Amino acid sequence: MKIEDSYDETARFAKLSEVEPRFWEKKKLEEMNKTEWELLCDGCGKCCLNKLEIKGKIKFTNTHCRFLDCQTCLCKIYEHRFEKVSDCRDIDLQAIREKPRWLPKTCAYWLLDNGYDLPPWHPLMSGRADSVHEAKMSLKGRNIVSESGIEDYENYIVDWQDL
Ligand code: SF4
Ligand code: SF4
User: Fold this and answer.
1) 96 with 81: CB under 8 angstroms?
2) In 3-state terms, what secondary structure has residue 8?
3) Mean pLDDT of the region 13-30
4) How far apart are CA 64 and CA 156, in angstroms?
5) Spacing, Cα 87 to ligand 2 middle (Å)
6) Strand 49-54 to strand 57-64: parallel, antiparallel, or no bridges (unpaired)?
7) 65 alpha carbon to ligand 1 midpoint, in Å?
8) pLDDT in tens, 54-90
9) Which sequence spans correspond to the domains of the chain?
10) Given the CA of residue 43, which atom of ligand 1 is nearest to it?
11) Residue 157, class by beta-carbon neighbours within 10 Å (0-12 exposed, 13-18 middle, 19+ buried)?
């Protein structure tokens, strides 16, 4: 059995009852525990697009990591991602504050770290994982292609408003 075959998309909110309501308004990112940290991810999948750095700016492409599930916009190998994908980045404070910015401007971690509130479509605000998709803030339904076999990433650069 392949690792990705055992991926459970419903596990994402399994620990929601373990955290304080609206914990993100009471704690800084630095103070959050692992459960809180993981729940902050909105599940948009946009950080799993391949990117290029051109003249000091990050350009997103519409090519995605081969382990991204395009329907749920979740990683199919989340617990094993760093073993399997050498350039998969951990979303830590350093990554969030890196310049040039490589996380999308809707990323919940980036928003909170820069003094913004979570948007109403964030699953923690709505109480539903699907709200990020319904608001069209995730990759679901977009024109994206798997990175497998792609070499000329320059031809896939996109300029979406929410990147
Ligand atoms: S961009 Fe941010 S909020 Fe969206 S999937 Fe990546 S880490 Fe989660
Ligand atoms: S391995 Fe990393 S880049 Fe690939 S889908 Fe999973 S989290 Fe995203």
Assistant:
1) no
2) coil
3) 95
4) 11
5) 9
6) antiparallel
7) 14
8) 999 999 999 999 999 999 999 999 999 999 999 999 9
9) 3-50+67-141
10) 5
11) middle
Residue 77 in tokens? 């190998």
3-state secondary structure of 53: strand
Mutate to test the pocket of ligand 2, among 49, 71, 75, 76 (most ligand atoms within 8 A of CB): 75
Rounded to two decimals, the pTM is: 0.96
51, β-bridge pairs: 60
Q: Look-up: residue for tokens 């998969």? A: 88
Residues with CB under 6 A from ligand 2: 48, 65, 67-68, 75, 77, 81, 85, 88
- Enumerate residues 6+ apart whose C-beta is below 8 A from 123: 13, 42, 43, 129, 130, 131, 132
Q: Which two tokens stand for residue 51?
A: 């990117």
Q: Which ligand is nearest to the CA of 80?
A: 2
Place of tokens 């990683």: 75
